[in-house]
Amino acid sequence: MGYVIRPVASAAELAEVYDLMGAQFEPARTRGDRGFGELARLFPERRTLMLLAHADDRIVGGAHIGPRGTLSIALMPEARGQGLGTRLVRALEEAATRLGCAAINVGGVTDRTRSFYLRLGFQGRGSMMRKGLPLSALRRDPDGWRRELAVLRARRQLRL
Ligand SMILES: CC(C)(COP(=O)(O)OP(=O)(O)OC[C@H]1O[C@@H](n2cnc3c(N)ncnc32)[C@H](O)[C@@H]1OP(=O)(O)O)[C@@H](O)C(=O)NCCC(=O)NCCS
What we know:
By secondary structure, this protein is α+β, with helices and mostly antiparallel strands. It has helices at 11-22, 34-46, 84-98, 111-119, 137-140, 144-159; strands at residues 4-7, 50-55, 58-65, 71-75, 103-106, 129-132. 43% of the residues lie in helices and 19% in strands. The longest helix has 16 residues, at 144-159.
């Protein structure tokens, strides 16, 4: 099955994905929970960290990084075991690195899911695991973009 991964498009869609993901957890989570309110507040600035996966026009799961750099991921049963979870986490890692995040945390890891996270480079023994992210250009040099912009503007003026 060809699954497509993309950022969540709106707050309403975020609620839809959250409910779908929440139904995969035990106990189930819904948009009525406090966790959703915290995530929704981050949506305007951090929407690149909120992804969904779909097959045709049917959403089959999602993954996001919420408050405190915490990863949440869940797929419908028929979409599991085909590498989609791995693709989602890798896409989130890239987006989080671009934003200058230092690490991704995940809680509630069980014996069933531990190998999934270990393969992706997460570390930790108990139910909490963590993966450090490479230092992004943004964190190495937070003002670098200003200098590059100034150089670009100067070059453009010379050409005029
Ligand atoms: C955990 C989950 C996101 C992994 O995504 P996935 O697309 O199935 O994973 P991938 O195909 O990329 O990798 C497969 C690995 O995932 C792990 N896995 C965990 N639960 C699984 C499941 N129900 N079905 C298949 N693989 C599962 C296994 O380690 C598997 O490796 P293995 O085949 O060597 O045993 C997905 O199975 C899922 O949504 N599970 C239910 C919700 C959940 O547990 N979320 C994580 C909370 S910490």
